[in-house]
Structure formats: C-alpha cells, structure tokens
C-alpha cells in the first residue's frame, strides 16, 4: 500500500483587469452622453415637430383646398350656364336692346347743339323768349312734319295790338305794337310764333282746337 501524501492547493494569483487611463474614460463617457441625448431628441422633439407641422398643414391647406374647389365650381357654373334653364337671359333681347340704345345715342349726337341744350334744360315761362323758340324751331325744321300748309295759316285774321298789355301765349313776350294771328276760338299769339306753331301742330296752343275743323 502506497503512502498517502498531503497536497496543499494554493489559489493562483489573480490577473489584474485592464484599466483605461483617465482621458480615454472621459471621452467614452462624453460620447455615451451625447448619443443618449441625440436619441432622446430624435424620439421626442423631432416627432413633436413633425406632428406640429402636420397640424399646421392640415389647418391651412384643407380649408384653402375646399375654398378653391368651391370657387372653381362656381366659375364653371357661371361661365357655362345651362341653356335650358328658365332664368337664363335671352341674348337676342339683350342685343336688340343694345342696338336700340346705340341708335338713340346716335340720333342725339347728330342733333344740333341748340336742340340738345334745350332738351336738357328746364326753362320757366318767363325765361323762354321768342328768340329761343325761333332758334329751336329753326334747328328742328327738317324733322317736323307740317300739320297745316302755310296758305291755311296765312288765311287767318291778322290784327295789330296796341298797348293793351297782352302777352304771347307761346313765347310770353309783351305784344305791344305787334301783329298777331287770331284763331277762330279767339286766342292769339305773335305772328311768328303762331305761324310756326300752327304749321307744326295744326291746333290752338291754348285750347287745342283743330285749325281745320
């Protein structure tokens, strides 16, 4: 039998762990901090900014898009109306009205200046003289259709007034020492006014009795 030998086990010496010097540890620590901050910013702040931007775009562009769509539809309806719609304006009537208006303006523009001035002015009886009447009749003589010929008017009785203080019923001038034409109804006016009036109207300027009755 072999003798037993006592064996004593002693622990092996521990190998020291590698250590970093102080500058390297500081750099790694700072880099880790920056990375964490960047990660947090990306996850929170960037997502918040994106949501805010999306909200602003929704608030702005959705109403604007609806507005422009409505405006476009209205323009299409107004520019291209339904020809069978009962309220659609009749272009033929409009064109006829414009043609009549243009014709009327042309007639007014071709009239004499005295006639246009008279047509635009409201004149009282005491301000309307025989000269105005004569000027108006002279300018419109080409447009007057005579109701009585001159021989019929000249066949009326002519008398001369003195200082009776009468006035012409047409031009309202005093008939002192002037010739007048008297109609069968008894009304009279100065010779020139009565001659022009009866040739144009064919009736008394006061009671409107017909001269040829």
From TrEMBL:
PROSITE patterns: ZF_RING_2
Gene3D superfamilies: Zinc/RING finger domain, C3HC4 (zinc finger)
Keywords: Membrane, Metal-binding, Transmembrane, Transmembrane helix, Zinc, Zinc-finger
Membrane-traversing stretches: 27-45, 57-78
UniProt-listed InterPro entries: Znf_RING, Znf_RING/FYVE/PHD
One GO molecular-function entry: zinc ion binding
Keyword Magnesium: no
One Pfam family hit: zf-RING_2
The organism's place on the tree of life at top rank: Eukaryota
Residues of the RING-type domain: 168-207
Name of this protein: RING-type domain-containing protein
């Amino acid at each position: 039998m072999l003798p037993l030998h006592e064996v004593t086990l002693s622990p092996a010496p521990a190998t020291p762990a590698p250590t970093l010097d102080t500058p390297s540890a500081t750099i790694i620590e700072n880099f880790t901090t920056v990375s964490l901050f960047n990660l947090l910013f990306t996850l929170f702040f960037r997502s918040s900014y994106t949501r805010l931007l999306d909200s602003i775009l929704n608030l702005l562009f959705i109403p604007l898009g609806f507005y422009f769509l409505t405006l476009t539809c209205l323009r299409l309806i107004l520019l291209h109306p339904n020809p069978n719609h009962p309220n659609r304006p009749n272009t033929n009537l409009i064109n006829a009205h414009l043609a009549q208006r243009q014709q009327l303006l042309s007639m007014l523009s071709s009239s004499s200046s005295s006639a246009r001035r008279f047509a635009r002015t409201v004149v009282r009886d005491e301000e309307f003289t025989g000269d105005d009447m004569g000027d108006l009749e002279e300018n419109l003589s080409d447009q007057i259709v005579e109701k009585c010929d001159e021989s019929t008017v000249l066949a009326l009785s002519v008398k001369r007034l003195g200082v009776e203080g009468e006035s012409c019923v047409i031009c309202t001038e005093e008939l002192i020492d002037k010739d007048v034409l008297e109609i069968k109804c008894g009304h009279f006016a100065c010779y020139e006014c009565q001659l022009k009036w009866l040739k144009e109207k064919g009736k008394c300027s006061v009671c409107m009795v017909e001269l040829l009755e």
